[in-house]
Amino acid sequence: MHNDYNAGDIVYIFYRNPHIQDVANIQEAAVVNSPDNPNELALFLFETYYPLTNDLVVFASEMDAEQAYHQYFH
Hints:
Blueprint: E1 10-16, E2 24-33, E3 41-45, E4 48-51, E5 58-59, H1 62-73
Antiparallel strand pairs: 1-2, 1-5, 2-3, 3-4
């Protein structure tokens, strides 16, 4: 659930290469206040803001992300 995160948190997500869709990596992202709506949270990744929605799978630790990655992609 994404309301467990606060601005300033570091989280981990699966990031798919936009050029090669079958390649996914674990990527660190920062939870920040959305520049469009400061009352909402966003992920800041690769100099881009992404809305922090329930459609995203977000992990609080790199270890949790790695375990899920190996479960889903190996």
